[in-house]
Amino acid sequence: MIVAVINAKLKILLRDRVALALVFILPVIFFAIFAGIFGGGMGGGQAPRIVAIVVDEDQTERSRALVASLKDSGAGMRISETHSTNDGPSIPWTSEQARETVRDGKADAAIIIPKGFKIDFSGQSKTPILVLVDPSNPIAGTMIPGMIQGAAMQGNRFTMIETGMAEFEKYGGALTPQQQAAIKNWEAEMAADQAADKQTDTTTDGSGQSKVDAALVPVTVEDVQKQQSGEKRSMVAYYAAGIGVMFLLFSVAGASGSLLEDQEAGILERMISSPLGMTRLLMANWIWISIMGMVSMFTLYLFATFVFGLGPWTSARIVSCIVITLFTAAAASALGLLLATACRTRGQLAGISTVIILVMSALGGSMMPRFVMPEIVREISWWVTFNAWSVEGYLEVFWYSSATTTLGEMLGSMAAPLGVLAGMTVVFMVIARLLARRWERI
Fold first, then answer.
1. Are 373 and 397 in contact (CB under 8 A)?
2. Terminus of the chain with fewer CB atoms < 10 Å: N or C?
3. Tens-digit pLDDT string for the chain (442 aa)
4. Residue 92 CB: number of other CB atoms within 10 A?
5. pTM of whole model > 0.85?
6. CATH 3.40.1710 region(s) of the chain?
7. DSSP labels for 331-393?
8. Are 339 and 256 contacting, i.e. CB atoms less than 8 angstroms apart?
């Protein structure tokens, strides 16, 4: 009897394609995604590439050698020294342009080499290199100072040797001719070798900056978000966007299943044959599910505000949050209706929507920040996921704006996400209407 029961269960499982997908395909998909991000399958085993702007205010042989060495430091960082203008050639970045670009999330970091930059062992250098970072990407703030030290040793090793020997002669007396000859031979040998990377420790001084001590090159790391307006930036604001979008998708997928319940109860056919019709029925469901989605999102953000300190809220942020939530809920509801019209039963909808939502959330930044992903995965997420655009819009409200940002500036920064979400809404609804024709033929 036990064997008969197991055999019956096996036959049921083999007939249920959705259940087979959940048992065998979903784990493989998720393993491929996470292995590709963290295990090197898609990223080549390398850390995510950091896009860093370099502003060379010193313009000396030493500073140019440092920049050249940073460029040759490997695949961990991509250097940008110039930017394109609307109607002219590329021009070098300025410090203010670099700061604004990092603040707006268009670059991971900026390295500003000041006038008077030098490398020595004396500890007398009073002008550190300034590294501007956005705390939403903690990798840049910890990685770049160490890369600067390694680049300084590699690109300015002869200057480093000369400075060190000058300090030695200052306190230990002049070198003999034999010692000077030995030093010259040593420099010739050093020219053929690669300098070892130098690891450094960072300590925070509580002002939004961290200083790298006991290093050849003094480095100060500055949080551009904190320095902008004095607001306290919390990672709650960053993750509220991703988590909210993922659970919105689950909510609307479940609510869209009411169409399948009406079909099973025999109600759907009567509603379609009434003056309401299929098109109006879909529109009514879309409006209702969108309203439910907006209410659920606002509930989440109210909870985050009172319990975790999300905010501060300004009139511009409130209006912008309402706008992006409206577009997000509309697109998510349209996607939910598309999935519902594509499925035959409520069980199929539950299984298929779970697979799709989890994959989209993993790639689109709801489960993990997109900055930890290889570039190829980040590019793919723009094309195949709903989450990436929605999360980008919410970040403009919660993270990249300040108390002084106007409503026009905030809506302007969200123009691309809003446009894409509106386009997705139209496409999803058109496909859902085409798929719903099968109910009209019943």
1. no
2. N
3. 677 767 776 776 677 666 666 666 666 666 666 566 555 544 444 455 688 899 998 888 878 888 888 887 665 678 888 887 666 678 889 889 898 888 887 888 899 998 877 765 554 556 788 999 887 777 777 788 888 877 776 655 555 555 566 656 666 666 667 766 766 666 665 555 544 443 433 444 555 555 544 456 788 888 887 645 556 566 777 778 888 888 899 889 888 888 888 888 888 888 888 888 888 899 999 999 999 999 989 998 898 888 888 878 889 999 999 999 999 999 999 999 999 999 888 888 888 888 888 888 888 888 877 777 777 778 888 887 888 999 889 988 888 887 788 899 899 989 999 999 999 999 999 999 999 988 876 5
4. 14
5. no
6. 50-229
7. HHHHHHHHHHHH-SSHHHHHHHHHHHHHHHHHHHTSSS-GGGS-HHHHHHHHHH-SHHHHHHH
8. yes
Count the neighbouring beta carbons within 10 Å of the beta carbon of residue 74: 12
**164 Cβ contact list (under 8 Å, min separation 6):** 120, 121
Q: Which residue has the tokens 């590329």?
A: 90
DSSP 8-state assignment for residue 197: P
User: Which tens digits make up the pLDDT trace of 103-132?
Assistant: 887 888 899 998 877 765 554 556 788 999
Q: Do 386 and 373 contact (CB within 8 A), yes or no?
A: no
Helix ranges restricted to H, 173-203 = 177-190
Taking the CA atoms of residue 325, residue 328, residue 329 and residue 330 in that order, the dihedral angle to the nearest 10 degrees is 120
Q: Which amino acid is at 131?
A: V
User: What is the distance between the alpha carbons of residues 83 and 94, in angstroms, rounded to a whole number?
Assistant: 10
233, 135 contact by CB (below 8 A): yes
Specify whether the CB–CB gap between 401 and 320 falls below 8 A. yes
- Looking at CATH, the fold of the domain delimited by 50-229 is given as abc type-2 transporter like fold (3.40.1710)
The rounded distance, in Å, linking the Cα atoms of 366 and 302 is 19
Q: Is-contact 139 77, C-beta < 8 A?
A: no
Q: Which of 113, 372, 380 is nearest to 238 (CA)?
A: 372
Question: Where are the extended beta strands (E) located within 199-356?
Answer: 202-204, 209-212, 219-223
- Cβ atoms of 156 and 62 closer than 8 Å: yes
DSSP 216: S
Question: What tokens does 80 get?
Answer: 């940008």
